[in-house]
Amino acid sequence: MPRRRMIYEGKAKILYEGPDPDTIVQYFKDDATAFNAAKKAVIDGKGVLNNRMSEHFMTGLNLIGVPTHFIKRLNMREQLVRKVEVIPLEVVVRNVAAGSMSKRLGIAEGTSLPRPIIEFYYKDDSLNDPLVTEEHAIAFGWASQQDLDEMISLALRVNDFMCGVMYGIGVKLVDFKIEIGRIFDGDFQRLVVADEISPDSCRLWDIETSKKLDKDVFRQDLGDLGDVYAELATRLGVMPKKSSTSGPKLVD
Ligand code: TMP
Ligand code: ASP
Question: What CATH number should be reported for the domain holding residue 175?
Answer without folding.
Answer: 3.30.470.20
